[in-house]
Design a protein that fits this description.
Oligomer: single chain
Largest sheet: 8 strands, antiparallel, barrel
Shape: elongated
Mean pLDDT: 92
């Protein structure tokens, strides 16, 4: 008999999508995306057969600096007007590593994320929830996020490497 797949939806109010990038190679700037949606389908209790689908609204980016956020939404970086969503669709998950296709702007590339499954619990309202932490690193230039500047001293303003951290809680549907 075939296992029935369960569908889980991301709980936005208990999830975070953050990133970190080196600034002038001496400090780290963090930011987050405030609007996103995602789901997973899995038959196994340990989620090892899970298929993940995720997207976020590029215009919801915030780094606590209005000018920088405006620049990130511009064509120098994400071009939020022309490419309003960043998307991820998984191709495999073995319990530790999530592989999938990440689309930023008009570029889709394979990425690999480390996954920590934090367990499943029932909340006080009777909803079953599962928690995960996803971590990975991309080279932003692979996705046509190529803008950069150089300081007077010759330091690169923005690192090519971007670290991504997603803390996600999913609600069983």
């Amino acid at each position: 008999m075939e296992n029935t797949k369960n569908t889980w939806k991301i709980d936005e109010s208990h999830s975070n999508v953050t990133f970190k990038v080196k600034h002038m190679m001496i400090s780290t700037v963090s930011g987050e995306f405030e609007k996103f949606e995602g789901s997973l389908e899995a038959a196994k209790e340990n989620f090892e057969d899970a298929q993940f689908d995720f997207s976020l609204e590029v215009a919801s980016i915030t780094t606590k600096n209005k000018d920088r956020d405006t620049h990130l939404k511009s064509d120098d970086f994400f071009n939020a007007e022309k490419f309003p969503k960043l998307k991820f669709k998984s191709t495999s998950f073995d319990g530790d590593t999530l592989k999938g296709d990440l689309t930023i702007r008009d570029v889709t590339r394979p990425v690999s994320l480390e996954v920590e499954y934090n367990g499943t619990a029932v909340d006080p309202y009777g909803q079953t929830k599962a928690g995960f932490e996803f971590k990975g690193e991309i080279n932003r230039k692979d996705f046509n996020l190529t803008w950069n500047g150089v300081t007077e001293a010759g330091n690169i303003v923005v690192s090519d490497k971007v670290r991504m951290i997603v803390d996600a809680q999913f609600i069983k549907q």
